[in-house]
Amino acid sequence: MTDDEPAGENPPVRRVSDWDADRLVDLAGEYDTPLYVQDLDRVRENCERLRDAFPDADLRYAVKAHTGRAVLEAVREAGLDAECASAGELDRALAAGFDGSRIHYTAVNPPARDLDYVVGVAGAEPGLTVTVGAVDTLDRLAERGYDGRVCVRVNPGVGAGHHEKVRTGGAAKFGVPRDRAAAVARDAAARFDVVGVHAHAGSGIDPEQLDSHRELVARMGELSRELAEPERDASGGTEPVDLEYVDVGGGFGVPYEEADPPLDLAAVADATREAVAPLPDGVALAVEPGRYVVADAGVLVTRVNTVKPTPAETVVGVDAGMTDLLRPALYDAYHPISNLGGGRSADGGDAAPADRSATPVTVAGPICETGDVLCRDRALADPVRGDLLAVGVAGAYGYEMASQYNSRPRPAEVAVHGGASTLVRRRETLADLTAVEREPPEPAASEADAVERRGGASERGAAADRDAAPETDRGVRDR
Ligand code: PLP
Q1: What is the 252 CA–ligand 1 centroid distance (Å)?
Q2: How many CB atoms neighbour CB 157 within 10 A?
Q3: CB of 73 within 8 A of CB of 52?
Q4: 3-class SS at 183?
Q5: Residue 474: is its pLDDT beyond 60?
Q6: Is the CB of 249 under 6 A from ligand 1?
């Protein structure tokens, strides 16, 4: 499916080649690499396109795609609510100025600490909604004295998404089973203010998977009618449940490969409205995309530090790896890569990328893992040491999944807006790597303990200690 929208004011996709290469080079010069660049204007455009496609729906941004404060503020100003998956995300949404009534906390096996925090926040922000996918979680909320707004998450029995690891809709982990959903919602209504039902098919739904999306939406529409009209409901309810909305999740895909067409959002919206209809009076449709809002608003800029021709392949070593952008290693995900140039070849050549031949290369990061590659066998304008590469469509689940594995500080992030740029996350330092560590026990003391233990034990006791020790331990002790 393609979007007919003219590529003028607000094009349906921004490709890596659409970024201003000179500006990315300047930003890398100013802030160093690896560097995430997030364009807040593009975030706003994506929000606008969603609003145009779903003018009457409740729009919620799935914060997990990118929780940076600047992004959250842009999304809030654009009028979307926040869908949060943890106490941490909720805390960040509040810090970015979201009112409690615009926050939807989706609890997935929530740790006690998260529930304590959320119930505390709801005391001050009674408009907050907790979306719950297990009866146990309802009980745990009630135990904490919570009787506020609840949405019941349903396992719709149908999933979709770009990779099996992100197809939540069919996974038992998420939501109450569909055949029990009506009964669970009715029981919950006796203890809480049940305001919605929710399901999410998965992440990165492409045009070929729209049938699954449509099926999920139809099932959710049917559930809302069962709850509004108890006589339709086999669970034996007699009282209608006064729903405000049916949330059919997010998952709208974005094109990663250059040749992939963008999602026809208007067609998706039409199909969604059609499949969910007729909604009971007063019940709104809600959607909660994450990726769609931020993915093409972000790039990761990285610098080539090593070019290694081998008989098998040419390996281009860069300073960003799976700790900066995990998606290729985790999901075999494709990210477009463009060579911005700036380097100098071994023979002193510094030709612009457009004047170089395209060479198939593997782009590999600095992490000691075979899977730490950003792409394989990809034709790039012959990379040389010092070149900058722009890794496109990196704004969603990019920085969010970054880690400090191999003791690598996480990268910096700069937000661009109009002609300005602002450093919104400083680059981590080596000191950040150990900031949460505490002093280990004094080696002298533990050594003294060990000596005392050894000396105090009878010969028989020492032998028993040896027998109880694991193989490897024993070997060490015997030596
Ligand atoms: N809602 C829920 C409950 C999710 O788990 C997710 C992603 O995992 C989303 C929304 C957003 O998905 P996407 O970023 O693909 O739109």
Answers
A1: 9
A2: 15
A3: no
A4: helix
A5: no
A6: yes
pLDDT score, position 449: 64
- Catalytic residue at 368? yes
- Helix H or strand E segment including 103: strand 103-107
Cβ of 251 closer than 6 Å to ligand 1, yes or no, is yes
Residues 422-448 pLDDT 10s: 999 999 999 999 999 999 998 776 665
Amino acid (one-letter) located at 63: V
- DSSP per-residue letters across 5-18: S-SSSS-S---GGG
With DSSP H G I counted as helix, E B as strand and the rest as coil, what are the percentages for the chain, rounded to 5? Answer: 40, 20, 40
CA 377 to ligand 1 centroid distance, Å: 31
| C-alpha count within 13 angstroms, C-beta hemisphere, residue 476 | 5
For a ligand 1 pocket test, name from 288, 294, 331 the mutation site with the most ligand atoms within 8 angstroms of its C-beta.
Answer: 288
CA gap 214, 209 in Å, rounded: 9
pLDDT, tens digit, 9 for 90 and up, residues 208-252: 778 888 999 999 999 999 999 888 767 677 789 999 999 999 999
Scanning 336-442, the segments in alpha helix (DSSP H) are 430-433
Q: How many angstroms separate the CA atoms of 225 and 231, rounded?
A: 10
Angle at 201 between CA 194 and CA 168, to 5 degrees: 95
Ligand 1 atom with least separation from CA of 204 = 15
Residue pLDDT, tens place only, 86-127:
999 999 999 999 999 999 999 899 999 999 999 999 999 999
The owner of tokens 């560590």 is: 437
| Length, in residues, of the chain | 479
pTM for the full model?
0.90
Find where tokens 């700790």 sit: 323
Q: Name the token pair of 15.
A: 């490709």
- Residue 372, C-beta contacts closer than 8 angstroms, at least 6 positions apart: 321, 322, 329, 364, 365, 366
> Are the C-beta atoms of residues 469 and 477 closer than 8 Å to each other?
yes
Spatial contact of 295 and 393, defined as CB atoms under 8 Å apart: yes
* Radius of gyration in angstroms for the set of CA atoms belonging to the chain, rounded to a whole number: 26
DSSP 186-253: HHHHTTSEEEEEE----S-B-GGGHHHHHHHHHHHHHHHHHHHSGGG-TT---SPP---EEE----B-
Atom number in ligand 1 closest to CA 161: 15
